[in-house]
Amino acid sequence: MKLFLIAFLATLALVQAASKEEIAAAEYLDNLNKEIAKRTNIETEASWAYASNINDENERKKNEISAEVAKFMKEVSKDIQKFKWQSYQSSDLRRQFKMLSKLGYAALPEEDYAAFLEIMSTMESNFAKVRVCDYKDSTKCDLSLDPEIEAVITTSRDPEELAYYWREFYDKAGTAVRTPYESYVEYNTKAAKLNNFTSGAELWLDEYEDETIEQQLEDIFDEIRPLYQEIHGYVRHRLRAFYGDKVVSEKGPIPMHLLGNMWAQQWSEIADIVSPFPEKPLIDVTAEMVKQGYTATKMFEMGDDFFTSMNLKKLPQDFWDKSILEKPDDGRDLVCHASAWDFYLTDDVRIKQCTRVTQDQFFTVHHELGHIQYFLQYQHLPFVYRTGANPGFHEAVGDVLSLSVSTPKHLERVGLLKNYVRDDEARINQLFLTALDKIVFLPFAFTMDKYRWSLFRGQVDKSNWNCAFWKLREEYSGIEPPVVRTEKDFDAPAKYHVSADVEYLRYLVSFIIQFQFYKSACIKAGQYDPSNTELPLDNCDIYGSIEAGDAFHKMLSLGASKAWPDALEAFNGERTMTGKAIAEYFEPLRIWLEAENKKNNVHIGWTASDKCVAA
Question: Which of 5, 316, 524, 605 registers the highest number of CB atoms within 10 A of its CB?
Answer without folding.
Answer: 524
